[in-house]
Amino acid sequence: MTTHYPIRKSGPFRVAPNLADHDKARAAFQWADIERELDWLPNGGLNIAHEAIDRHVLRGNGQKVAMRWEGKNGEREDVTFEQFRRETNKFADVLRSLGVAKGERVFTFMERLPEIYHAVFGTLKAGCIAGPLFSAFGPDPVRDRLDYSGATVLVTQPELRKKVEHILPALPNLKHVIVVNKNGRSKEPLAKGDLDYDALMAKANQSFVPLTTSRDDYSIMHFTSGTTGKPKGAAHRHNSVIQQYATGKWCLDLHPDDIYWCTADPGWVTGTSYGMIAPWTNGVTQVIYEGGFSARKWYEIIQRYKVTVWYTAPTAIRMLMKSGAALPKSHDLSSLRFIASVGEPLNPEAVMWGLEAFGMGIHDNWWQTETGAIMIANYASMDIRPGSMGRPIPGVEVGIIDGKGNEVPTGEEGDLAVKAGWPSMFRTYWNDEERYRSRFLGDWYITGDRARKDKDGYFWFIGRADDVINSSGHLIGPFEVESVLIEHPAVAEAGVIGKPDPIAMEVVKAFVSLKDGHEPTEQLRHELMRFARSKLAAATAPREIEFVKSLPKTRSGKIMRRLLKARELGLPEGDTSTLEDD
Length: 582
Ligand code: ATP
Ligand code: MG
Known about the structure:
The chain is α/β, with parallel strands linked by helices and 582 residues long.
């Protein structure tokens, strides 16, 4: 059974692109409709891996390509759903034969190799909790996360193992280190006590693994990005698949014949919820590129694999913008039909650039590690409102509330909050139930973001609660100021903070990096001040502008305003475990 919901663009889900119909369908919607589209386990249980992989094979689509992998050295590998099923069965069997019990934490510290997908879904099949770590982490963040989660298994690669070798003996819970030597890239012998992935897999049973998970069993543990402070380990349940599957259809407009590319790494929640679960539960072929960012390479990937749906992030879009609109024009990107973005506010300038470079707008959507899946989106079927995060998905209630949990009038700023109980809601911060509980006010979950809602039900991001600036009683969101600054042709990126001021309490200070070919002169500084003043209210325009080569960012590409502020004030920088190298 399929749900007819008027927010898809094409295929069996013909749309009625108007807001009233959207509201009507929202009102009638029940999650049970989506739950019926999933297969569930014979015993009534639920398992993400079963929904993402096995059910396609059981329905006769085993020969369809699930993954088209391109390695950083140009290697290619296609994996069908049938092969994927076998590899994940085998990995689950490896865990079983090592005596790893249900609920144990199995972490990966790997680059984007096919084996990371095999390991994560195999972990889920075995009923264990998967914890993917970003491969660019140094030893300390890896140790902290393994220690905090009490991980018993680490799956890694020779060169990454080497990077963290000195921290491993200090982890009492860690029992097994499994090493993937992809295509024999490393010539070094296995370290003493380590297990060879290929050898274990060669002996494993590829045909049958009992799946015993229920919808409430833990599935994946993801650490937040560390943008506002120490990263927190959010634990998710198999139940999340319901919303990940649904939003793949609704918000990314996935159809079975799509070729999809999600540029996020599995080390971040986007890389699992939308780089694994949403596309594969929708039976879509996914492109996986192991290498890092390069504008030219990225366009080549879209051209070579004929990518139709592309999910990326504002930081990547700003980098592509920096490299100009001529480059995409020199590639055949005609396969693209839908582009979406998440992770940070998407500046209106970036949405419009999509029109210029790709002939289509970029669909912003909002969610966070804790929500597990997209909550607010610019839908395929509706007009994009540049600068807005969009409208809430069916089946969730999103509100703008005051400090007492009351909704504020339309148009007013407040805390962005979600009524608890959406399917992909995190269940706890691992080992920190108190912090988890502190995020709720009555039945509202407080997201930590400030926003407002317009009369048509579109939500507009103002800033993280910690980043909002109070200047002479005006509350100013950095995003608004940054978006104006990047409209200037010389500006590549901007990060805005409140700088303490004896009279105004805080004044707006902007840090600006420039596009290639522009010099940080006094004249340009004045020009930018004038430019901002012409577009912003007097209290909102920056009082100071400082040129920087680059802005401090998390490894997932988010501007770390708290670091700009700490540096400005000469204060300690706090947790910098997710800070990107310069
Ligand atoms: P930490 O919680 O450790 O400080 P983080 O909040 O950056 O890190 P994530 O869960 O990866 O960790 O990011 C979610 C946050 O990213 C959201 O709460 C919001 O602040 C921001 N964000 C994500 N998408 C959007 C968007 N479309 N528009 C505006 N902000 C967004
Ligand atoms: Mg957060």
